Amino acid sequence: MNRPGIQWANGSAKDGKKSRFARRRSVSTESVPKAPSNDQTIGLIDTFSKPAAEGVGLKARRLSLSLPDEFVVDSCDLEKEFRSSSAFPGKRGKRLGSGATAVVRIMARKGPPSSEDLVAVKEFRGRDKDETDDEYNKKVKSEYSIAKSLHHPNIVETVRLCTNRGRWNHVMEYCGHGELFSLVERKLFAAGPEGHYNVQDRLCFFKQLLRGVDYLHCHGIAHRDIKLENLLLDKEGHLKISDFGVAEVFSGEHPGLRAAGGECGKNMGEVRLSKPGICGSLPYIAPEVLEKKGEYDPRPLDVWSCAIVFLTMTFGGSPWQAAKPEFEYYARFKQGWDEWLPTHEDGQIIDGPDGHPKCGKLFSLINPPPIKRLLLKMLHPLPEKRITIRDVVNSPCIKNIDCCCPANFEDPACCIDTSKPTKQTSKMTKTKQFLHHHIPPAQEKKFVKVLQHRFDMGDGWQ
Q1: Which PANTHER family does the entry mention (predicted)?
Q2: Which residues have a catalytic role annotated?
Q3: 122 marked among binding-site residues
Q4: Can you name the residues that pair with 124 across neighbouring β-strands?
Q5: Strands 95-98 and 102-109
Q6: Could you tell me the pTM of the whole model?
């Protein structure tokens, strides 16, 4: 049944044939709004799941460094430390959602009932027929050890690795307001009276995402699957990056190695390139990865994906089906670069009327101009000229964004409500942060879809 609003992408390639990139919805089929006076967004495209290709998940990590036969990972029986969050005896906790490789439920720590004790438990799928027990166990432990080593306000905290009824379970922080995908799908970022989040909210979310990715890159980790579905909101309304199933340790010791002691960013040095192969969701993947012409640095992929997240939040839909010339909307974008680069050999974007490529109507709608120029730097088609995440975070337009979330766990200026002066706020006048209200409005129960989580375990596609 057709629905009003932006149509879901079904592969409108130039030759008129149905594209092999068409994908099925993984959760809701409700439409999202079009951007005002703009026909370039093609819809809020869903995630997908297909068998892992070379260069994805554990296979990529095994090619880039030698993993031990036995990971240094402590685990326990799930029911010894956690209990069902259901009030009904014998009933398992509420199902948050599922992907092709896992099911996620709410559980609670054992002890006196408390809302602070809720956790999200990701139960991994069983072993595939074409993988050995050793490969399967290494994949689970590798993902867990990477996630467990990460500690940042904008990254989901990992709690425990458990076993239950012959299955691995990854216990993590529970983010009660669900995915950013669901919030965009609910039209909460739309312009006009039906929208809930304003420009400042969107910029604050963007800054939190950039800080989280900067932390990852500074510690030798590339996420490789940044998308709305993997960005969650905790009870404070802060953004959290989740799902490290296809993350790559591009520098330093793998956190699962004994030499790393469970920490990331140890003994960092040269950058290890990722093997050819695609992982992630099509609209978010950088062109150099889609081309599969050779090994690639995974960091520019994350930078590209962050820019696509911002565009999707802004316009309620992905700017293109995939960053491939056969798709009309990306072809328009690429044409702008192809016409601009020959007269700007250094490829550097600067202020001024001819300081950046003209990439179509969509980009003409982005304001303020410094943000538009920054996004174009993040979407440079040449990965070696694409801006780094550190330079993005340190750019004046990002530094000037008021952010409600601390930059790190050592930052004392966390969530200061400057509307209520106190001794604490007066001492922090120079470093004060503004308290935003990112908590989404409640939905009627029959329409609740906000607690949808999709977690994959190293799945990509060829």
Answers
A1: SERINE/THREONINE KINASE (PTHR24343), SERINE_THREONINE PROTEIN KINASE (PTHR24343:SF191)
A2: 225
A3: yes
A4: 102
A5: antiparallel
A6: 0.81
